[in-house]
């Protein structure tokens, strides 16, 4: 018997049918006027005790409601409260700022951050309590750029890599120069290589060179221009 028909049966039983024409047209179902039916059954029993999945991240997110906070930040005209221990555990920079020699002082409970937008700090704070990709409502490359700068400033390697990965999807003729400049300034090797690969296409490079952003790139990061030329030369030699 070479033909098999599979049926999934759940519950107390099942019914299955095979069309007559299928049987008549097949020479392999019947052998000596007989056919074989094979039934495979799996029996599952529920365990006596079900252990839930870890939910510590949910508990950390709940802390953002403000209970037990012991440090306050003023950013862009808005106030954010947090827990020193959580911040110190996530960031070596915050640990030094809150507990190390460069700490603000036990009497000072409000820390001002003047060079960051409030919505960027809110995303940064949310990441510290959830370790998950931030949800950006109006997603664009500008917000991911700001978040990358903040992640680099406070030494959040995972968040910085997330921002790099996101920005790779925004690389295009109108954005590659500014993204490459950002990658060079903040030592984002993966993002930088993605930009250089894009510019290694002579057609892309020709259009980007005429853009004002490329002038800024060559003036602020002249070493990048040398790398672009080196890549183009390598491609020409390979041909």
UniProtKB/TrEMBL annotation:
GO biological process, one term: protein ubiquitination
Segments forming domain BTB: 69-137
Pathway(s) the chain acts in: Protein modification; protein ubiquitination
Matching CDD domains: BTB_POZ_BPM_plant (cd18280)
Entries under Pfam families matching the protein: BACK_BPM_SPOP, BTB
Organism domain of life: Eukaryota
Gene3D superfamilies tied to this protein: 1.25.40.420, Potassium Channel Kv1.1, Chain A
Protein family (similarity comment): Belongs to the Tdpoz family.
Protein name from the UniProt record: BTB domain-containing protein
């Amino acid at each position: 018997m070479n033909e098999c028909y599979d049926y999934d049966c759940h519950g107390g039983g099942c019914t299955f049918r095979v069309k007559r024409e299928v049987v008549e047209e097949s020479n392999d179902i019947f052998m000596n006027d007989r056919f074989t039916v094979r039934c495979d059954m799996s029996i599952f029993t529920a365990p006596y005790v079900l252990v839930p999945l870890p939910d510590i991240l949910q508990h950390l997110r709940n802390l953002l409601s403000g209970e037990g906070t012991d440090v306050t930040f003023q950013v862009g005209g808005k106030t954010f409260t947090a827990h020193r221990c959580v911040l110190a555990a996530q960031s070596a920079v915050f640990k030094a700022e809150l507990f190390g020699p460069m700490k603000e002082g036990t009497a000072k409970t409000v820390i001002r951050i003047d060079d960051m937008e409030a919505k960027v700090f809110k995303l940064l704070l949310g990441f510290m309590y959830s370790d998950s990709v931030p949800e950006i409502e109006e997603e664009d490359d500008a917000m991911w750029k700001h978040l990358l700068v903040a992640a680099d400033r406070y030494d959040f390697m995972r968040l910085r890599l997330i921002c790099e990965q996101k920005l790779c999807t925004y690389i295009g003729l109108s954005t590659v120069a500014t993204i490459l400049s950002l990658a060079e300034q903040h030592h984002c090797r993966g993002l930088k290589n993605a930009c250089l690969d894009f510019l290694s296409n002579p057609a892309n490079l020709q259009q980007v060179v005429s853009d004002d952003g490329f002038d800024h790139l060559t003036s602020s990061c002249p070493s990048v221009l040398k790398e672009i030329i080196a890549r183009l030369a390598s491609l020409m030699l390979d041909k």
